[in-house]
Write a structure and sequence with these properties.
The structure holds two protein chains of two kinds.
Chain A lengths: L1 H20 L3 E4 L5 E5 L11 E12 L6 E7 L7 E8 L4 E2 L3 E2 L5 E7 L4 E13 L6 E13 L1
Antiparallel strand pairs in A: 1-3, 3-9, 4-8, 4-10, 5-7, 5-9, 6-8
Chain B lengths: L1 H19 L3 E11 L3 E5 L20 E12 L4 E6 L8 E7 L6 E2 L2 E2 L6 E7 L2 E14 L14 E5 L3
Antiparallel strand pairs in B: 2-3, 3-9, 4-8, 4-10, 5-7, 5-9, 6-8
Classes of the chains: A mainly beta, B mainly beta.
Chain lengths: ~150, ~160
């Protein structure tokens, strides 16, 4: 009986913790980040970069979560001599502007004040490659956006 | 006994606190491709070369023009630039051309002729080059005589690498 009580207590606490995990969320509101194909250049210049407005994202936060920030990272480094740059717009906080993405999370928006509700921002990617990057067959990367303390 | 439960409870609460601080996350897949790119350009549309002097005892003095520039971008390996003219130069007259090479490539001065294009720059590999000099040289022997104004269109061709 004591054991059962202990497990119930532990379970209750963990469930409480689980609710805390989802208290702040960030979601892309479109499924795909898009496809970027570099296929042209001006003679004497590096290949022409390509970019698009991939869509929107939405954050859900609560008043009691303090100051937050949004970070972005890749699951794997980009090939040599190529870069993926991400630009977010967001209605509050200090926007860090265009950031080159890598496996180490980079700040995109910081000093986001406490807020109860949803906010929406926009996502724009830019893909660049130098001539020395060579020809690259199709590949993909996973971009992760996080919102947290 | 109380201490035992207190310890476990503290451990669980610590875990909960850690989870509460975790960030919300979302992923998105982005797809990429870089296709073969081979681009080159030459800025000048016309060059005039006039031979007017000689050193006594020698053929007329060749003249050169290096006012044109060219540019190239390739993301492939061993691309090349070649050139030819539609009809041969008059007897005793040669039109030479040399293109400055971008980094890592090889430049060779060639006299132009009709037919098979002459390779001017080879080994152009994953590089961009800008404002590279184009040098034309017109030579004539004394036996060529006086030649009225004439012209040739030089056709440059870039052959992609692999």
């Amino acid at each position: 009986m004591k054991t059962v009580v202990r497990y119930l207590l532990t379970t209750a606490l963990l469930l409480s913790g689980s609710r805390a995990v989802v208290a702040q969320t960030i979601k892309f509101t479109n499924g795909s980040g898009g496809t970027f194909t570099i296929a042209s250049a001006v003679a004497g210049q590096d290949p022409t970069s390509v970019s698009n407005g991939a869509g929107n994202f939405t954050t859900t936060t609560k008043n009691n979560q303090g100051v937050l920030r949004i970070q972005a990272s890749l699951n794997q480094a980009m090939p040599p001599n190529t870069t993926l740059t991400l630009t977010l717009t967001y209605p509050t906080g200090a926007n860090q502007g265009a950031q080159v993405l890598g496996i180490t999370p980079v700040d995109m928006v910081v000093s986001i004040p406490a807020f109860q509700g949803n906010r929406t921002g926009t996502v724009t990617y830019s893909f660049a490659a130098t001539a020395s990057a060579g020809v690259l067959t199709p590949f993909s990367r996973t971009v992760t956006l996080t919102i947290g303390p | 006994m109380i201490a035992k439960y207190a310890g476990r409870t503290a451990a669980v609460l610590s875990l909960v606190a850690g989870l509460a601080a975790a960030a919300g996350a979302q992923t998105q897949t982005v797809n990429f491709e870089v296709k073969p790119i081979n681009q080159f350009s030459i800025t000048s549309t016309a060059v005039t070369l006039t031979i007017t002097t000689a050193t006594a005892g020698s053929d007329p003095t060749p003249v050169t023009d290096a006012t044109s520039v060219w540019a190239v971008t390739t993301n492939q390996t061993n691309a090349k630039i070649s050139a030819n003219i539609p009809t041969d130069m008059p007897a005793g007259v040669t039109l030479g051309v040399q293109l400055a090479a971008p980094a890592g490539a090889t430049s060779t001065a060639k006299n132009l002729a009709s037919g098979t294009a002459q390779d001017l720059v080879t080994g152009i590999t994953k590089v961009k080059g800008n404002a590279l000099t184009v040098t034309y040289t017109l030579s004539a022997t004394a036996a060529a005589g006086v030649i009225a104004a004439d012209s040739r269109v030089v056709t440059y061709t870039m052959t992609p690498g692999t």
